[in-house]
Amino acid sequence: MREDEQGAERVARRLTVVQMLPALDGGGVERGTLEIAEALVAAGHRAIVISEGGRLVEELEALGAEHITLPVGRKALTTLHYIPIVRRLLRDEGVDILHLRSRLPAWIGYLAWKGLPNVSRPHLVTTVHGAYSPGWYSAVMTKGERVIAVSDSIVEYIRTNYPKVDPERIVRIYRGIDPEHYYPDFRPDPAWAERFFTENPQVRGRWLLTLPGRITQIKGQMDLIEIVAGLKARGVPVHALMVGGVHPRRQDYWCRVQKEVEDRGLGADITWLGPRNDLREIMAISDVVLSLTQKPESFGRTVTEALALGRPVLGYDHGGVGEQLGQVYPEGRVPPGDVDAAVECLAQWWREGAPSVTEAVPFTLARMQDETLALYQSLAVERS
Fold first, then answer.
1. With helix as H, strand as E and coil as C, how does the chain read?
2. In the chain, what's the furthest Cα-to-Cα distance?
3. Which of 278, 283, 293 lies closest to 219, judged by CA?
4. pLDDT at residue 206 above 90?
5. How does pLDDT run across 276-299, given as a tens digit for each residue?
């Protein structure tokens, strides 16, 4: 067999890829894990996910991927007991790529990987999904032979906080959405719309703002309350939707949010919908989708989804959200934390109409999947 034929065979060979994360209950990291697993299976590779489990396991397995239940994200000393178990799994399953996606599971995976002989270690990939607090604990996310950064702002975060990381090891791969699922002409099913407005009659005929995101201080629910109060004071017939779940550890904050809504007399103007599986439809009927994160987000998936639906987005101009808006919808950027500027911009949009979303969204699912699988293959070729 000629050398070029041998090279082609190496590139095309079936890979076994393990992804590790705390759980599969929902969220951007979890969704990205399923999307890569789906692409691996579609390309004929073997996809394994290690996590504590959750509601997305059934969907993962339906894609043809495998799930191994280990509580590698539990913050307890007993979690260290899983290091030899993961090490044995990496060896026995002939894993080619180990992809670490969250800090505590990354430490378990990294120490398991480190304990293997050099010649039998899989290639190590890490993804920096957010601007973690710098330090030794977060540094594990920079240990990969390739370190995926989900936006240019995360590339800068790595270079600033971990200057010893070789820039050649950092690969920027944007997260992405499926344009067959999110597109400007999408309209919710009439039956869905009728059901939604029947269940939520308070939103009929109102100028509708939607703030997606779990109920945490970082997501900016308190700023949303200020924005609604400011718009009402200007005569805007606004109604705001908060879409996202409340973790048990966030109950105190949620109580403060509810009290603030009550104290401001906005109970009829703000609705909490809880966690939903129909966020696409909710955003599609919204007049504006908001991103009010108090800290720079690494990417901001819902921003991309809303823009792909052709919906105006107003967001704080920092991190990945500022990056996305700068490329697709610069009119939607306001200074971080500047509620007055947000109110002024939104009031103008209500009076005059929001600018149309005319730029195509470049952050696609296929591109993210292709670039990630190409990264895996390039590492596999290095070992061949």
1. CCHHHHHHHHHHCCCEEEEECCCCCCCHHHHHHHHHHHHHHHCCCEEEEEECCCCCHHHHHHCCCEEEECCCCCCCHHHHHHHHHHHHHHHHCCCCEEEECCHHHHHHHHHHHHCCCHHHCCEEEEEECCCCCCCHHHHHHHCCCEEEECCHHHHHHHHHHCCCCCHHHEEECCCCECCCCCCCCCCCCHHHHHHHHHHCHHHCCCEEEEEECCCCHHHCHHHHHHHHHHHHHCCCCEEEEEECCCCHHHHHHHHHHHHHHHHCCCCCCEEEEECCCCHHHHHHCCCEEEECCCCCCCCCHHHHHHHHCCCCEEEECCHHHHHHHHHHCHHHEECCCCHHHHHHHHHHHHHHCCCCCCCCCCCEHHHHHHHHHHHHHHHHHHHC
2. 78
3. 293
4. yes
5. 989 999 999 999 999 999 988 888
Q: How many CA atoms lie within 13 A of 380 on its CB side?
A: 23
Say which residues have a Cβ less than 8 Å from residue 80's Cβ, sequence separation at least 6. 108
The candidate with the shortest Cα–Cα distance to 51, out of 42, 41, 61, is 61
Tens digit of pLDDT for each residue in 222-260? 999 999 999 999 999 999 999 998 888 889 999 999 999
Instruction: Report the range of poorest mean pLDDT among 37-51, 78-92, 179-193, 293-307.
Output: 293-307
Q: Could you give the C-alpha distances from 32 to 62, 167, 326, in angstroms and in order?
A: 16, 24, 23
Q: pLDDT averaged over the chain?
A: 93
The position carrying tokens 């009119």 is: 331
